[in-house]
Amino acid sequence: MAYTHTNQAHGFHFGSAVMRLFGEAKKAYARQAAYSRTYRELSEMSDHELDDIGLTRGMIHDIAFQASRSDVNQG
């Protein structure tokens, strides 16, 4: 007697959807942590220190946002 087993290559797979959801949540958490860390570190610098590295206080948000995206993409 022969038994066959077939796998469907299409359709909804609950386990895969859950794993993707957790993966996206993990990325979002990592992005937020990188943003907060960078923002905090730059905000703690004096205007003179920021000027020494070519930044102004008004650039901190954009720099932290860029860092949060590159940290997550590299890691």
Structure summarized in a few sentences:
With 75 residues, the chain is mostly helical.
Notable traits:
mainly alpha, 75 residues, single chain
Describe the structure.
The protein is mainly α. It has helices spanning 14-43, 47-52, 60-74. Helix 1 (14-43) crosses helix 3. It is rod-shaped. The mean pLDDT is 88.
Task: Provide the structure class.
Answer: mainly alpha
Question: What do the pLDDT scores average to?
Answer: 88
Note the run of SSEs as H and E. Answer: HHH
Main sheet: strands, sense, barrel: none
Topology, element by element:
Blueprint: H1 14-43, H2 47-52, H3 60-74
Helix pairs in contact: 1-3
